[in-house]
Design the sequence.
């Protein structure tokens, strides 16, 4: 008999949530993480992650988001810790652009409370913002941010309290599966279980070569600048944002846990990277790209640089997630390719992956996220 029912490979955002959901269902689960429980080599560090309901990427995400909010609240309660802050969210850009247009479409389709403002009205309400008057801005009151490091730790600690076993600094080298069993070979030994859930983030294709062109790591950079008028960027005075402008697509947060207004550019410099050998130290070009954006649209936020951090997106060709069973090994479930917008979903994806590991299917409709969309005409 296998020592475990399920092994979860990778304990970042998705793996820690999966571990938690399995353990609280009474499943005998082992979580394996190649680095420390908290580390800065992957995709879930940097103090804050946006959560928002007016989902411009596609309206299909909204029902998952509702469940996600519910589960984050549950996690807060069980962990006895504040993990989610509501600030409202701004999705802004040209009227027909993907951000404003998509957010409006999701809001209308799902009956989400929202307001549409121009750049001048947005500045009147939230003076940190200085967008051109003609910018279309959708304000959704339930947007906010999560604390990813704390959420990951809370998921793992609660999983442990339900009996989960966790081993950090133990790298999975390879795995095999067949006849309802999986075998995992690691830097420290071998483990056997009934099921394997792969949540390897930027390393997904190392564990699953079939994802080679479907889950591609990309370097990102985040900046925290000390505002010259800090009161305009404080929690309560500044909603999180997604903003499509001439220079590209940016996102940002109020100052929190750092004396700095935090923001980044989606697909920063378009650098596809090897997750084991990439330039992790930000340079002057990274910094100037970000400061130039802030000078134009958030001039009161541009004081000295407080911190720069790199991080990785793992992009799919259509920028939608991959949630599925392995095409040849039904014992293996895959959560990959979160394309820079996955964190807010960790709580519900943990539930989905636990369903897949236990029953081979999920209570949530995940057809949109199946692998076959890349391999068949459908
Ligand atoms: C700069 C930046 C900003 C972002 N902003 C947002 C945002 O505002 N809102 C939002 O919703 N999302 C955002 N995202 C995206 C979100 O953070 C990611 O989608 C999410 O964190 C991905 O989680 P993951 O579990 O797939 O990856 P990770 O959290 O990186 O976890 C993967 C884990 O697997 C481990 N691992 C890999 N290989 C092995 C192995 N062989 N053996 C053992 N362990 C292994 C890794 O060490 C890692 O800990 C952002 C991402 C970045 C980089």
Sequence:
């Amino acid at each position: 008999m296998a020592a475990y029912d399920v092994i979860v490979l990778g304990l970042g955002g998705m793996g820690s949530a999966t571990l938690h959901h399995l353990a609280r269902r009474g499943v005998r689960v082992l979580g394996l993480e190649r680095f420390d429980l908290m580390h800065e080599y992957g995709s879930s560090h940097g103090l804050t992650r946006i959560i928002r309901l007016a989902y411009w990427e596609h309206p299909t995400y909204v029902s998952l988001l509702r469940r996600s909010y519910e589960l984050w609240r549950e996690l807060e309660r069980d962990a006895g810790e504040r993990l989610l802050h509501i600030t409202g969210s701004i999705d802004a850009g040209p009227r027909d652009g993907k951000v404003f247009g998509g957010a409006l479409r999701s809001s209308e389709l799902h009956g989400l409370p929202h307001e549409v403002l121009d750049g001048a009205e947005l500045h009147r309400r939230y003076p940190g913002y200085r967008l051109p008057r003609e910018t279309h801005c959708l304000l959704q009151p339930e947007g906010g941010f999560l604390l990813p490091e704390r959420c990951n730790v809370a998921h793992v600690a609660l999983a442990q309290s339900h009996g989960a076993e966790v081993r950090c600094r133990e790298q999975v080298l390879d795995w095999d599966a067949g006849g309802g069993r999986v075998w995992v070979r690691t830097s420290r030994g071998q483990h056997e279980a009934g099921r394997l859930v792969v949540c390897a983030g930027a390393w997904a294709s190392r564990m699953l070569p079939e994802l080679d062109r479907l889950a591609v790591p990309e370097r990102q950079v985040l900046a925290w600048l000390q505002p010259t008028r800090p009161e305009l960027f404080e929690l309560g005075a500044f909603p999180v944002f997604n903003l499509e402008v001439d220079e590209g697509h940016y996102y940002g947060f109020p100052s929190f846990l750092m004396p700095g207004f935090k923001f980044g550019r989606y697909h920063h410099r378009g650098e596809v990277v090897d997750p084991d050998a990439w330039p992790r130290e930000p340079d002057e070009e990274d910094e100037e790209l970000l400061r130039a954006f802030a000078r134009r649209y958030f001039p009161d936020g541009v004081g000295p640089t407080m911190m720069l951090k790199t991080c990785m997106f793992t992009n799919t060709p259509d920028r939608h997630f991959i949630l599925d069973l392995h095409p040849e090994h039904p014992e293996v479930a895959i959560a990959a390719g979160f394309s820079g917008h996955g964190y807010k979903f960790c709580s519900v994806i943990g539930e989905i992956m636990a369903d897949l590991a236990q029953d081979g299917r999920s209570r949530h409709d995940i057809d949109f996220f199946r692998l076959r969309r890349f391999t068949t005409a459908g």
Remarks:
- The two ends are 39 Å apart (CA to CA).
- The CA atoms of residues 157 and 356 lie 22 Å apart.
- The longest strand covers residues 305-315.
- The mean pLDDT is 97.
